[in-house]
Amino acid sequence: MENVKDTFKEVAAAILPVTIVIILLQFTIIRLPLEALLQFLIGAAFVGIGFFLFLLGVTAGLLPVGEMIGKRLPKTKKSWLIIGTGFMLGLAVTIAEPDVRVLAKQIDQVSEGSISAGILILSVAFGLAIFVSLAMVRTIFRIPIHYLLIGGYLAVFLLSTFVPEAFVSISFDAGGVTTGPMAVPFILALGVGVASVLRTNSSSASEGFGLIGLASIGPVLAIMILGVLFQ
Question: Do 226 and 124 contact (CB within 8 A), yes or no?
Answer without folding.
Answer: no
